[in-house]
Amino acid sequence: MNRKKLQKLTDSLTKNCKHFNKLEVKCLINLFYNLVGDVTERQGLVVGLDRNAFRNILHVTFGMTDDMIMDRVFRAFDKDNDGCITVSEWVYGLSVFLRGTLEEKMKYCFDVFDLNGDGFISKEEMFHMLKNSLLKQPSEEDPGEGIKDLVEITLKKMDHDHDGKLSFADYEQAVREETLLLEAFGPCLPDPKSQKEFEAQVFKDPNEFNEV
Amino acid sequence: MGAALTRSAQWTAAGHGARALETTPLNEAILKEIIVFVESFICKHPQEADYVFVEPLEWKTRLDPSAFGLGHVVSETTVKSEEADKNGQPLLFLSVPEIKVRSFGQLSRVLYIAQNTKLEEAQACIEANRNPIAKILGLDYNMIKEINEDSSVLTILDKITKDGDPESEIKMKIALLLKQLDLHLHNRSLKNISLEIRLNPGTVKNDIELLKRSSGKGEKTVLESIEYTSDYEFSNGCRAPPWRQIQGEICYVLVKPHDADALCITCSKEGVFLNGGKTDDEGEINYERKGEIYKDLVTLLREKSAVFSENMSQQDVRFNGEQQKEEDQPDEAPEEEAAALRKASAAFRRSALERKQISLGRSQLTKRLEPSLNWKTTVDAKGKSSRRDTQEEKRGGRLEKSRPSTSPGKAQLIRKSAEKIEEIISESSSESEEDEEPPDHLQEANTDLPSEYWQIQKLVKYLKGGNQTATVIALCCMQDFNLAQETCQLAIRDVGGLEVLINLLETDEVKCMIGSLKILKEISHNPQIRRNIVDLGGLPVMVNILDSPHKSLKCLAAETIANVAKFRRAWRAVRRHGGITKLVALLDCRQHATEPAERSLYEAHDGEVARCGALALWSCSKSYANKEAIRRAGGIPLLAQLLKTSHENMLIPVVGTLQECASEENYRAAIKAERIIENLVKKLNSENKQLQKHCAMAIYQCAEDEETRELVRLHGGLRALASLLSNADNKERLAAVTGAAWKCSTSKENVTKFREHKAIEALVGLLTDQPEEVLVSTVGALGECCREPEGRVTVRKRGGVQPLVDLLVGTNRALLVNVTKAIGACAVEPESMMIIDHLDGVRLLWSLLKNPHPDVKASAAWALCPCIQNAKDAGEMVRSFVGGLELVVNLLKSDNKEVLASVCAAITNIAKDQENLAVITDHGVVPLLSKLANTNDDTLRRHLAEAISRCCMWGRNRVAFGEHKVVAPLVRYLKSNDTNVHRATAQALYQLSEDADNCITMHENGAVKLLLHMVGSPDQDLQEAAAGCIANIRRLALATEKARYN
């Protein structure tokens, strides 16, 4: 990609993104193209990361393991739902992912947890997300019992309007009361350590990228 | 009485002949009880009071024959009672100083005569008669009791029914009364003892013996084996080598549990812990501590071995069962017997009733002793050991023989000395006061558990078996319970939640750690939970978290430490794991100043971190070693820095820490150097009452120092204090403020300032209706203010004298010292003196000379001096106190320097009146003063010399002083460095030199040269006295020469 085009892209993305400065945006764009590989841009074909490539990044760089959550994170990044993360989706997604305010992160996490995208986290969705969260106890006959109970107590804690499912308002209120509940149904944000490593690595030396 | 005496009273170490009772509070309490018993005997049991003892009680009394009056035949050195026994022997016979008493009636009369020296007489009597019961009732009664305590009463009863002799009936009644007393004393001393016992060789040995009995092969046993490492037992019951005993270690045991490797365990006074084990080559033990300290062996083993803990709970039942049986038997028998007897003889109804009372008392006692073999982990170590001790004692001779090492006196001695050593090496005494670890109560297994219990149990299950996500959910839900409520706190512990929560702290899942700390922070308000957290090793983990890069974690950890570290073991744990240094580092806000502005989700402000650090330090700063550690870690400059902020919630812990630490000298110096006083003074003006209180407390501590007092004044602190004085709503703050005012008023300039700010008026207003701690400081401050004439006038005009005099009847020692001082200061002014005299204040002061505390005595005697000086008709007034002069003279026998000096000063003033001088001379003031002459204390020397010079003015006292060899030591006083001593001595010598023999002695001791020197002194009185003395000596020399040549 030529330098002029890159400059223009950087400028426009920086304008739309409040958490990164120009240099950082540039670094992220560079990283993106490094990851996508040397695909020459053609008319009509979207350049981007597909699901597998993105999941790979989440797993390797941010240590995520839960397939379902990683899928959901991909969907949250992929705003236009075309199965491919473009460079602008990449930069925007990362800005929330790494530096988002509490409000942004809440929205993002809620999107991740709302598996079917209907605006509510239902009991079934919770059960789905929590189903692997308890060690199977040999004494228990039905391992699902524990999970069901866990879902019930979670709902009791977070469902403020008592309609048997979590709306965004429920979720928001619960998180504001106790920030720990932000990632209530599974880790979908980078843990502080890997975030630090990632940032240190990517934003290390902007000049280096310029030369690439 | 006998049993209580031999077992509970604290005797001094045996060795030289007769043993003496130590003067401990316990002994004093016992003696007082005995005195009350004997005194009331004559009224309560008039018949028994006439009973003649089998053998007389003999002891050396200090009572004077002249003290005996009605009913006694008194001669110069002997007294006989008119009462006599059947053979015409008097029931009381005194031949100075031996006294023999043969009935309770006479005994109580003796105590009545003894008045003030009751305690001494009772002590002397008991020291001389180690087995009073044998003497009173005869040897056989005593023997019966010793052999079988439980059935003794029955045997006596049997005997009596056979004899039918009226004397035996009385005898028996007395025996019963004595037994009642004995039980009563036991109960009392038990209460005392149970407060102070910790692990001791006896308890440890007992534990090991019991474990041994239930060890061996087989499934039902608790352990495979348990062995001492050393067969040799020292006389104090310890098996550790002496150099380890100094560390408080008692013995080492090798334990082989069923389900774990052999453990090598150290039992020490502090508790029980794993050591490094036996080294293979030499069989030496590696004494290094390798694990946590547990409070006893069973707790440790429960922790280390699951099989032990399981089998133990079964053993529990058995042990308890056995125990029950043992105790039931002796109690049942007398009950039946008693019933039979009641039927048999109506004549004995009364005694049977009494006996029933006894057995009732007994069963109460045994009930309290019951849990001694209870192995529940939760029984408090202290309580257990004490109960067990007394249990052993109760069972009497047999058991004691098999276990000679734990006679209570000795054990106590060991404990005492060990404690002393421990105090020196590790902690300050202030720690032990607060080291109250409250007893645990485990929830009864079968009581109705609240629904929270089950819900919490479920959550803890998810904590244990969940991944990070489930754990966080469970933690968040747990926070919704009312964690301030004890049921929830204990439920978390009882279902094993504490272990999990502490384990979570060792992971590196930030969210789990935060959640766990949030819960720990809340439940650690409960004292039992605190102890459990420490037992589980929670503190080192939390100390490590203080290094975390996440500030909110640091905050939570520090806050939790602040809650947990409320007792000595916790303070020590924090210090030993480097917590103090890390906490001090938290105080430093500046180091983070460069960090990026944006904060990630779980972060806190730097200020918050510092606040939490200060909170934790505040909790920890109650021990000397920790205070030192804080200082060494550079905490003082940081605290000084934080003091400049204006956030109250930050300032309170900061000032609190400073206030705790200011009890140490080097802190006060540092506080001065860091200009902390200035800020403390500023914060006095804050709105927050708690902050004001802590500031005032800190100033109170620091104002011992002259310069600091000046600083307080310079920064306007006196005005703030004065204005706070007029606000009496908050008593705690008021106590702190009056304290600060008291200390500050030690400087003259400050008193002037206080007067300007009308502080004296406010202080006078605080003399009534205030708690004692306020009164102590208020009166102290007034005492200082009254040293200035203006202050005295203000106090008088404001009506302060009356409430001060009213306070003289109190009992608080510190208060009495201050009140007497203040009244002494007021009495300097004649008008105030009139008021004091009018209110009979002098008599009250005089009666304080009988106070048991030497500092009160001394302070009262000092206060009497200006009173006698300024009272109208002082001589007449002094004479009007019956026995007053004798009391003062007798105080010269005290061994407290301050008392002696003050009494000498009082005598100087009393002796100004010729008639009184005559009276005190009759009371033997001359020999008593002479006895004091060989002293090096300059204050005493000065007042002694003054008293001597005054007392010379009567009769042949001059000669008498010479005969009592007072002159030579007095001459030596002239070599002192104190001019006050010189003046007083020269005056005394001048008076003494009127007698020729004294002149010779002076001359022989080289007084002339010393006095010649003093003639050149600028002090006129000294000049005059020295010159007069030399003149007298010279005149004598001339006279002799003249005589020789004529």
Report on this model:
The complex is a heterodimer of chains A (212) and B (1046). With 212 residues, chain A is mainly α. Chain A has two domains: 3-99 and 191-203, EF-hand (Recoverin, domain 1), CATH 1.10.238.10; 103-181, EF-hand (Recoverin, domain 1, Orthogonal Bundle). Helix content of chain A is 60%, strand content 4%. Chain A contains eleven helices and four strands; from the N terminus they run ααβααβααβααβααα. In chain A, strands 1-2 form a two-stranded antiparallel ribbon. Chain A has a two-stranded antiparallel ribbon with strand order 3-4. The longest helix of chain A is centred in the last third of the chain and has 16 residues, at 143-158. Chain A is elongated. The N and C termini of chain A lie close together (11 Å). The mean pLDDT of chain A is 83. Chain B is mainly α and 1046 residues long. Among the domains of chain B are: 1-158, no CATH class; 201-304, copper amine oxidase-like fold; 451-536, Leucine-rich Repeat Variant, CATH 1.25.10.10; 924-1045, Leucine-rich Repeat Variant, CATH 1.25.10.10. In chain B, 65% of the residues lie in helices and 5% in strands. Chain B is built from 59 helices and ten strands. Chain B has a five-stranded antiparallel β-sheet with strand order 1-5-4-3-2. A five-stranded antiparallel β-sheet of chain B has the order 6-7-8-9-10, covered by helices on one side. In chain B, α26 (551-564) runs parallel beside α29 (606-620), α28 (579-586) packs antiparallel against α29 and α43 (801-807) runs antiparallel to α44. Chain B is globular, with a radius of gyration of 36 Å. Chain A binds chain B through residues 99, 102, 105, 129-130, 132-135, 137, 146, 149-150, 153-154, 156-157, 178-187, 191-192, 195, and chain B through 458-459, 462, 465-470, 472-477, 479-480, 510-511, 514-515, 549-550, 598, 600-602.
